[in-house]
Prior knowledge:
Number of strands: 6
Order of helices and strands: HEEEEEHEH
Amino acid sequence: MRESDxxxxxxxxxxxxxxxxxxxxxxxxxxxxxxLVMLPEVVSNGPAGxxxxxxxxxxxxxxxxxxxxxxxxxHERLRKYGWRIEVVDGIEDVEELFR
Length: 99
C-alpha cells in the first residue's frame, strides 16, 4: 500500500460525511501537514444531537513510515495554536478518525 492509497481512502471517507479534503501547500514551512479536512455540521435526531463542524490537519504517511524530526516540530507549533493534527499511515488510522 502506498501513501496515495491512504489519501484516496481518507478523501472517500470525508466525502461520505459530506466534507471536503484540500491539499495544503505551506510556503517556507517545511514539515507542515499535507491535508486540510473540513467536515460540516451534522444535525441528528438521535441522542448525539447536533455535531459541530470540524476542521483539522492530516499528515499522510506511507504505511509504517514515521514522522521526521522537522515534521514533529512543525506539528507541535501548530498544536500550540489550537490546531488538531492527525497522522495517518494506513486505512485503519483513517477509520479511527471517524469513530
